[in-house]
Amino acid sequence: MADVFPATAPPLGSPDRQSAMRTAARLAESALAVEGVATGDREFRDWYAGRVRDDVAEVRRIALDRLSGWRAEPGTGNLVHDSGRFFSVEGLAAEDVDGGSPGWEQPVIRQPEIGILGLVAKEFGGVLHFLMQAKNEPGNHNGVQLSPTVQATRSNYSRVHRGASVPYVEFFQQAGRHHVLADSLQSEQGSWFVGKRNRNIVVEVGREVEVEAGESFRWLTLGQIHRLLAEDDVINMDARSVLACLPFGGAGEGAPTSTAVLRSCVEETGALHPTGEILSWLAGLRAGSGLAVRRVPLDEVRGWKRTEECVAHEDGRFFRVIGVDVRAAGREVRQWTQPLIEPVAQGVVAFLVAEIGGVVHALVNARTQAGLIDKVELAPTVQCVPSNYPRAPYPPQLRFLDEVLEAPAERVRFDSRLSEEGGRFHHAVNRYLIVDWHGDHRIEDDTFRWVALHQLAGLLRHGHYLNIEARSLVACLHSLAGGTRATGTGEEVPAR
Known about the structure:
By secondary structure, the chain is of the alpha+beta class. The chain has helices at 15-32, 41-54, 154-157, 170-173, 222-229, 237-244, 260-266, 275-288, 401-405, 453-459, 468-478, and strands at 57-62, 70-72, 79-81, 88-96, 104-110, 114-124, 127-136, 144-147, 150-152, 179-187, 193-194, 197-204, 217-221, 291-296, 304-306, 310-313, 319-328, 335-343, 347-356, 359-368, 376-379, 382-384, 412-419, 429-436, 448-452, 484-486, 492-494.
């Protein structure tokens, strides 16, 4: 069961409330600081260009039966690591026991370890900065992207691979020694993982704590990071997930409120639906879900075929399981092989947003995914790979696709191509959009609800409420707080 929290914030004037207000105000100040104190924009651009130039990985496709350190498990065909750690690729069967929808089978990644996605924060010149890492993942189509300070599985930071230690991991293993800004267990892709969770954590160290930025690290303000979100494939998925969990909500009076987005981040009134009502709606859908999931051998997954080269769907849709050989100079281990999931096409991930009563709301979809622990989490308005579905009649996954893709330019507030996690997925790219909805907001049904931005921030203090795609979009929404629209190439234009 996901954890439950009070629907109301601490009372005004209480120490907890005052602390939340101060934190939210400091985050808002950092979000408005588009020129860093610790790292100037020109310095960052030169450094990042250097990391892209120097941190080069050679990623070569190889047959699955040539993976070194991996083997097909006798009797199942599951791809498992010789150590018994890291992750495995096996089969999953899902069916609706109530008979409401057809079942399916698919390959899936099983990784029961809880990894760390952690950001270290520190004040420079009175402004919060965050230690970002330039990291080359084997599945990134463009090589280096900006990741959190630490992005590591338990197997990695416990050095099962016998490689170098993970820098800065001690700040999160000993988080109680520092000021914890955010800390929750969050899911990953429910379509490709089963039961996968990471600890999303942000710790602020005091001014007296010396934290030297290593060669692959730089301190950036939220304003700098938010501007980079508008550029294709710069801020990676794990960084977006952690950034979304920052406690913008709960500031109340006194925080900067330069735009409707920022106001909606920090105020706690004006929601179309009370938070308790949203929680009850989601709990009811979870309790009523008839989805049953069981493990099946990878060699016996119906509708999929296995060759020496890959595991693929028989009609070419969805994704493939491939093998890669990786040689990278800037990693804890210099050479390794592994399986990766490779989607067959680019997806679309989008929020429709509207100001309702002066407060920004996003239209969320309570989406069922077989790999989620609670089966149902709040997802974007649109989350699909259009080519995987017939266009007519439209399935529920495509209900608002035309409204997103055919929106006039003046209604598109964010449009950027962003990658998913390059450590498990190969060239997995989605087009992320935030689009103004100008129609009647009474378009809700059993699985769609308008949720205020400050409510989403509140839900993200806890695990298993928003899926990974929705968390990425929340980070993108926060990036609009400076009053600009992101066009997707780094160009920004004034918001209306």
